[in-house]
Write a structure and sequence with these properties.
Helix content: 25-40%
Largest sheet: 6 strands, mixed
Low-confidence stretches: 1-6, 126-188, 416-425, 688-695, 960-971
Shape: globular
Length: 971
């Protein structure tokens, strides 16, 4: 007995049902008659399914109608009927049902031939009603049915025929007169296909496949056509050739074929040159690569466009190019003119207009300009530039020249017109929604435990709780909730829950959009498509304190649950969205030192913000006084993080904060700063006077010290980057670099490689390691940055411990009308020979008793409220290195003050910087605003944990069980 196969039984029942439909004059569900249409199968009140696609997921009425339109567009039309493609399990693949017989056809072209054949040679079966049949026919006798001669093809000699009709199993007799049993169990037409022999190889195959067999097996392949090419420089024989054979975009490469003296034929691709060199070393005939061979068919030359300087000046006036970049473009134009080569040539092969390539002259022969030219690509859809000499978001001279060329030839690409009114209205509505969420949907710093715990059951629908508009005066009712998506994902520690439906409501009067944003349910909605649980947000926050990135956490959760989570970048932006809505005070104060510490430690953390392009920052206006509103700036940073859940693209997001001299503020605690107006005078670093230029010598020495600490592989990489021979010992390479760094361009290149594009972080902390002020520098760090921070404080500290104490005191005293660091310019004693000799011998002691107990001298208006003294010193701690060239530095040693060494925790600052360096891997890859926001957030949680430990330590040290906290309070 054969084994029962349910799949075969299902197919048999489907065919029997089709035969029944034909017998009863019914049409298949995929055949639409005139005046009819496809009917959706309702699942519930809001979701519907397609009757032809069982694998199609249930969706909304609007989307199912669009799905039906796709069926109609791909349908086959026969007479007045529309035959849609059927996806039911009649066959394994999608197919069409013939309305004249029970045949199913997969391809639409074959359906056209089948209809003609079936219409001409097949007559529909004739069925006699049961009540009119003679008695002997009611016993299921099919001999009276007319024969269907179209079931078999006419027999030809030499061609094997198909199975005879007599071989079919006969139907058994039953006592049931139902129509289903009037049809044989297997009444399918059979057709014998013709066979033919291949004239080339003698293979016997179906005749319909003979042409394809000959084409594939016995037709000689045509040679590949030549790659498109364009002559760029006729004098030197340089061409631009497509890189590969493809229908899409392909970046051109430069190829040289010069016939004069010296004769030269080469391709700039390293792979092509390596193959040629390998053939020469092996004694083989040198072969030409496909790029060089394509030059045989090259006949087109690119027209050079002389670039005008007035266009460049217009770009500078429109802030499309900086003044320094414009001068560099002019110098490169002069160098190209002297060399007799075109500066910039448009390479157009007639492809997609979305990718524009420009060949730019490069006078130096480097690894990316083997033939003295560079291909710069501009993507119009994303407004991005690519050059092989720089990273995607970094500026370079070749990009500036290409921008100059396109601004002159295709100025419409730089048109910054205002968007249409409808888009502007939609953007304004989203702005109101972002501000509403920021003001009304804040999350407490410590949510209740029930909210942090993972929800026991994920809801299927998330609707906004607002039913009326709270922003309108008369609170009009909102529109009915409309579906945003039915495929939202809830991400939590327990895994991933998909197919969650999210809904929005809108105010018909003001247009504000309201969405689900309720933290009390234990969920945090990012963009209506990704929802995080508060438990996961807390887990990510703890991992941030342990220097673990969000991508690592997501990868661990994916491996744990065996599911694919949303992209790590999306979850990171969702976490930043959560932190921006958290009502954290960011006090930045120590429980022991109070809001105004008398002793502070100044230090810096060098980092590289990759997306920070300092060279393209605009020079501030002349009326800018160097003061920033710290509250407004950090509100804009929070709005930037929140708006990422509303605006899908940053190009249309009005809340994006970009670095600029006029809008870039530090963070100082509310009780520590004098007011919301703080200093940020980094724009003055652009053109420093001679006095401040002398102050940067210390930074130059620090850069050289960092160079000495680099490993040999890193030094060799720096040498190759600066076009220096990388062979030799470590000290020889450092000496070569130091000599080359006398050139400003090489110096800046080495500095960016070691310290990054930005100036790093300036940090002010108390002796206990609590951070009080934080600033991300746009340019190279200098004493000016710390002076900006300290001059913004309500009470200037008495003791400032800084590695470059002399530079800090000199710069700060120059900026103020009266000297801030006094007496003796911030030194502990007057620089007399006796004091210098005593300090060098360790015999000089300068006691500052007001550090331990407040001074009882008459109140001074400028005195510090904790110490009662108005003296201020800029000193060097023992873990700092004094300047050996300045003999007066010994008078700035903190060891001369007996009250300082025991009260200052030097390793605390080093530990802070070490912790900050551990976060560089994931922080440096972020945008500047996200980098700034997340660093402040991480330091805030670190301060909170450090204060908790300080309180526990003080409580433990209290005597007789009396819990006393020694806090310094300011009246």
């Amino acid at each position: 007995m054969s084994q029962y196969q349910p799949e075969a039984e299902v197919v048999r029942l489907i065919h029997n049902r089709r035969f029944m439909e034909l017998a009863a004059g019914m049409e298949h569900v995929s055949v639409i008659k005139p005046g009819e249409e496809l009917e959706a199968r309702p699942i519930d009140d809001t979701l519907f399914a397609c009757p032809l696609c069982p694998k199609q997921k249930a969706t909304t009425w609007r989307r199912i109608q669009g799905h039906f339109e796709g069926h109609v567009n791909t349908a086959f039309r026969f007479e007045d009927k529309v035959i849609c493609r059927c996806g039911l399990p009649c066959r394994d693949a999608a197919h069409y049902h013939c309305p004249l017989c029970w045949t199913t056809i997969i391809r639409k072209e074959q359906m056209r031939f089948h209809i003609k054949y079936c219409r001409r040679r097949t007559a529909p079966p004739v069925f006699v009603p049961a009540h009119s049949m003679p008695p002997h026919q009611r016993d299921h006798d099919y001999s009276q049915l007319p024969p269907n001669h179209s079931d078999r093809s006419p027999q030809r000699p030499g061609v094997p025929s198909g199975p005879e009709t007599g071989d079919r199993p006969e139907a058994t007799s039953t006592s049931c007169d139902s129509p289903e049993e009037l049809v044989p169990a297997k009444a399918f037409p059979t057709q014998t296909l013709k066979r033919a022999k291949c004239p080339h190889c003698g293979l016997l195959l179906y005749k319909k496949n003979l042409a394809a067999h000959v084409q594939r097996k016995h037709t000689q392949k045509k040679e590949k056509p030549a790659l498109k090419s364009l002559c760029i420089d006729r004098a030197n024989g340089i061409f631009a050739v497509r890189k590969v054979f493809s229908h899409g975009f392909s970046t051109p490469v430069h190829v040289q074929r010069k016939a004069g003296e010296p004769q030269r034929t080469t391709c700039e691709l390293r792979e092509c040159r390596q193959v040629r060199a390998l053939a020469q070393r092996g004694g083989l005939t040198p072969t030409e690569c496909e790029h060089v061979r394509s030059l045989r068919f090259s006949c087109d030359s690119a027209a050079e466009e002389p670039l005008r300087e007035d266009v460049l000046e217009e770009m500078v006036s429109l802030n499309l190019c900086g003044a320094a970049a414009a001068n560099d473009c002019k110098e490169r134009q002069k160098a190209a003119r002297d060399a007799g080569v075109p500066l910039a040539v448009l390479v157009n092969f007639g492809g997609s207009p979305r990718q524009i390539c420009v060949s730019v002259h490069e006078p130096k022969t480097l690894y990316y300009s083997v033939l003295g030219r560079v291909i710069v690509t501009y993507k119009t859809t994303h407004n991005t530039w690519h050059c092989p000499c720089a990273k995607p978001h970094k500026s370079c001279p070749h990009k500036n020249v290409s921008r100059w060329h396109l601004f002159q030839t295709r100025k419409h690409l730089f048109n910054c017109e205002a968007p249409p009114s409808t888009d502007r209205s939609s953007s304004e509505d989203l702005e109101k929604s972002v501000r509403y969420v920021y003001e009304k949907k804040r999350i407490p710093p410590d949510p209740p435990g029930a909210a942090v715990d993972a929800p026991t059951q994920t809801p299927d629908k998330l609707l906004p709780v607002e039913t009326v508009c709270p922003l309108c005066s008369d609170e009009p009712p909102l529109t009915d909730a409309f579906l945003v998506t039915d495929a939202a994902a809830v991400v939590g520690m327990g895994g991933l829950s998909r197919n969650v439906s999210t809904y929005n409501r809108r105010c018909s009067r003001c247009g504000v959009l309201y969405r689900y944003q309720e933290w009390r349910d234990g969920l945090h909605n990012f963009n209506d498509r990704v929802i995080l649980t508060l438990e996961l947000c807390s887990y990510l926050r703890i991992n941030m304190q342990s220097h673990v990135s969000v991508s690592t956490c997501v990868s661990c959760l994916e491996k744990l649950h065996g599911k694919k989570f949303p992209p790590a970048d999306t979850i990171l932006r969702a976490y930043l969205h959560f932190e921006a809505l958290t009502s954290s005070e960011c006090a930045y104060a120590c429980v022991t030192c109070g809001p105004s510490p008398p002793v502070v430690v100044l230090d810096r953390h060098r980092t590289a913000v990759r997306d920070l392009e300092v060279s393209e920052l605009r020079t501030p206006s002349e009326d800018y006084d160097g003061q920033q509103n710290i509250s407004d700036f950090w509100d804009s940073i929070n709005l930037d993080m929140i708006s990422r859940g509303f605006f899908p693209k940053s190009s249309s997001n009005p809340f994006v904060v970009k670095p600029s001299y006029e809008n870039w503020a530090p963070w100082i605690g509310t009780q520590t700063r004098r007011s919301d107006s703080v200093f940020n005078t980094e724009y003055k670093k652009i053109s420093e006077d001679q006095t401040e230029a002398d102050l940067s010598a210390a930074a130059e020495d620090s850069l050289f010290d960092d160079l000495l600490q680099q490993q040999i592989w890193r030094i060799r990489k720096l040498c190759r980057m600066c076009n220096i021979d990388a062979s030799g010992s470590r000290l020889d390479l450092i000496k070569k670099l130091q000599e080359k760094m006398e050139n400003r361009q090489t110096h800046d290149k080495v500095q960016r490689a070691l310290w990054g594009a930005s100036g790093g972080w300036s940090v002010v902390l108390c002796p206990h390691g609590i951070v009080y002020a934080l600033k991300l520098n746009l340019r190279e760090e200098s004493p000016r940055d710390f002076a900006d921070l300290l001059l913004s404080w309500k009470h200037f500290p008495n003791i400032c411990l800084y590695e470059f104490a002399h530079d800090l005191a000199t710069h700060t005293n120059l900026r103020t009308d009266s000297a801030v660091f006094r007496p003796h310019g911030g030194k502990l004693a007057e620089a007399t020979p006796e004091n210098l000799q005593a300090a060098a011998g360790g015999k000089l002691q300068v006691s500052l008793p007001w550090l331990s107990e407040k001074s009882d001298l008459p109140d001074d208006a400028d005195a510090h409220p904790v110490t009662g003294s108005s003296r201020r010193y800029a000193l060097i701690h023992k873990y700092h290195e004094a300047d050996p060239d300045d003999p007066e530095e010994v008078l700035r040693s903190a060891d001369l003050v007996p009250e300082i060494p025991g009260s200052v925790n030097g390793p605390a600052a080093e530990q802070l910087l070490s912790d900050m360096r551990k976060n560089d891997d994931f922080l440096n890859a972020m945008a500047p605003s996200a980098h700034l926001f997340l660093m402040r957030n991480i330091i805030q949680h670190r301060n909170t944990e450090s204060n908790r430990k300080l309180e526990a330590r003080q409580l433990k040290r209290s005597r007789h069980g009396v819990f006393q906290l020694k806090r310094r309070k300011v009246k």
